[in-house]
Amino acid sequence: MIVKKTALSLSRLSFAQKLELMEALWTELTRNQKKLESPSWHEAVLEDREEAFASGKVEISNWEEAKKRIKKKVS
Fold it and tell me: Could you give the CA distance from residue 43 to residue 34 in angstroms, rounded to a whole number?
């Protein structure tokens, strides 16, 4: 299949338009999840995180708490 390249000036898009474009691309990419393969190192990272949680080394926080913590760190 030959795909025609499209010139797209991302710098001309508003922030909202960029988010919409990103969401549309993600939706299209995830239509066939069987084609999406995570890199092998993802499994190791997930296992490490599960082990850290199970041993009490880390705690889970809800999304609102996590956003506040992240904002505080980057401010």
Answer: 17
